[in-house]
Design a protein that fits this description.
By secondary structure, this protein is an alpha+beta fold. It is built from two helices and two strands, in the order E-E-H-H. A two-stranded antiparallel sheet has the order 1-2. This is Transposase.
Amino acid sequence: MNGYNSGSLVPDGATHLFFTELELLRRVASLVPPTQAERLF
C-alpha cells in the first residue's frame, strides 16, 4: 500500500489516500498524454 497526503479534505473528511501499487500506477499513467502515433489511430 502506498499513501498520499492530499493536503486537503475529501468529502468524507480523509486527508490521506491509500492505493495498491497497481492502482497508483494506473492513476499516474492516466496523466501521461498519448504519443502522436497513438492519436492518429
